[in-house]
Amino acid sequence: MTFNHQNTSAIGIGTWHLGEGNQTKTESEMQAIKYGLDRGINLIDTAEMYGDGLSETLIGKVIKNYQRDNFQLVSKFYPFHATPKLIEQSLKNSLKRLQTDYLDLYLLHWRGNTPLTETVSGLEKMVQAGLIKNWGVSNFDLDDLKELSATKDGSHCRINEDLYNIASRGIEYSILPWQKEHGMSFVGYSPFGSDGGQFLKIKPIIQQMAKDKGITPYQLLLAWVIRNHDLLSIPKTASVEHMQSNIKAVDVQFTTDELQLLDQSYPKPTSETTLETI
Known about the structure:
The chain is of the alpha/beta class and about 280 residues long. Helices cover about 40% and strands about 15% of the residues. The chain has a single domain, classed as TIM Barrel, CATH 3.20.20.100.
């Protein structure tokens, strides 16, 4: 997959809740990001919301030792910061925490009350100012995407980032096909569900298939999300051990029979569904 005319690794690095723990935990999280960057993962996803900037601050400490054009940095702003003036203010605050001069992608975190025309105008100004290379959205459903597409310069939206895992497949029905048709890349978050175990129940078929393939259930879940090589998944990774596991999942392959078995336990959507979000 290519973002910003730069080839992107099969998986990115998600950072929700990173930087919020004690010094030992924070050090583990920093080492995990370094391990990923050192082994070819070249996209980091964060947001001003994550720990009220603590995630961005942690990332900034890591990436200052790396050549900036070797990886892509994605951050997101609150919907109540979606006016041109507040977008600029939020962006500059994020850049300061991240210790960088620009973002590769800047996303509206979810839909708010600010008209999309205002938000798009503000994002376009940030592109022109050289503070971001491209922009996108997150947690947009099909109607949101269509409205955005009809907005002036709305077609410049580079990506939409939604929840996507084996138990949350609603985007496959219309959102993913629509984005492919309109040349908009898709990023799926939470391939393992939420921290509280919501949105994804690991059924016996997952346990058994993972055992048969000599991998962990989590490696199987991540490999399934990226099975078609047509989207990016951004698992949160808080330790080197987890990062190693995620990287190994990239090489996992499925037979047609295995995919059909998984479809039986986690069916494809057959109609439009309400977009799930975490």
